[in-house]
Amino acid sequence: MLTFSFLTLFPELLAPFAAEAIVGKARERGLIDVRLVNMRDFSGNKHLKVDDAPYGGGAGMVIRVDVAERALASLPPADEVILLTPAGAPFTQAVAEELATRSHLAFLCGRYEGFDARVEGLVTRELSIGDFVMMGGEAAAACVLEAVARLVPGVIGDPDSHRADSFSSGLLDYPEYTRPPEWRGLGVPEVLRGGNHAAVAAWRRAQALERTRQRRPDLLASAALSPQDSTVLSALGATTQELQAWNAPPAPVPRRPRRKKPQETRKE
């Protein structure tokens, strides 16, 4: 079981994410556990004050390092103590897959002007969900919770489903369709309705390559492309220079049909 511990000043913001939908069902089944720790319980004063004015002046308030330390000490030992901050490393699918192999993850969710910088000595890594600033770390924590929890074995019904997700394969995901077969003049691609699984797989791979090339070509350099992918990308208009920049292997050379040898006539 993977345990998520979130240290926050507003546990009520994270409670719905921990109680509903797939995450909530996974908790009920004992696949994951989510602990919401209110840092005000470790303020050390009757007013539950956890922050103070920054040394050197400036706007806003800073969460004290001693409060964070006491809150962390109340938890069982964690494999990772993660600070959610715009200054952290980007949170990616690869990081989510790595964290899903742990047994206990603790997250520090900041507010106001963030934590005293000495908190950095209490954490094992810092993560950011993007190059923007929010009012606190709870929304970022909810993103990480959903991204990591769904990778825990048994949480999602089909254990192979997440392997085809965007970024898991190195590419954006292919488009999906369901009923109705026709909607406002838009139909479902015929290949998806034909029952040929090999053709469906080839179409989906080609669609994933096309979407990635159009929307996130930067991903192609680390997507482990195959010779067949090179053929598809070339057909989509990729140049030789682009294929080289993406480390794409040479496309397979089509085989020439063998010429039949003329049959010798027997002499009677």
TrEMBL record:
GO molecular function, one term: tRNA (guanine(37)-N1)-methyltransferase activity
Top class in the EC scheme: transferase
Enzyme Commission number(s) from the entry: 2.1.1.228
The keyword Transmembrane appears for this protein: no
Region entry Disordered, spans: 241-268
Enzymatic reactions: guanosine(37) in tRNA + S-adenosyl-L-methionine = N(1)-methylguanosine(37) in tRNA + S-adenosyl-L-homocysteine + H(+)
InterPro entries associated with the record: Alpha/beta_knot_MTases, tRNA_m1G_MeTrfase_C_sf, tRNA_m1G_MeTrfase_TrmD, tRNA_m1G_MTases_N, tRNA_MeTrfase_TRMD/TRM10
Recorded GO CC terms: cytosol
Subcellular location: Cytoplasm
Keyword terms: Cytoplasm, Methyltransferase, S-adenosyl-L-methionine, Transferase, tRNA processing
Principal cellular location given in the protein's record: cytoplasm
Pfam families (alphabetical): tRNA_m1G_MT (PF01746)
Residues annotated as domain tRNA methyltransferase TRMD/TRM10-type: 3-220
Domain of life (superkingdom): Bacteria
Binding site for S-adenosyl-L-methionine: 110, 129-134
Signal peptide annotation: none
Any one Gene Ontology BP term: tRNA N1-guanine methylation
Functional description taken from the UniProt entry: Specifically methylates guanosine-37 in various tRNAs.
Similarity-based family: Belongs to the RNA methyltransferase TrmD family.
Assembly information from the UniProt record: Homodimer.
Protein name: tRNA (guanine-N(1)-)-methyltransferase
Organism of provenance: Deinococcus koreensis
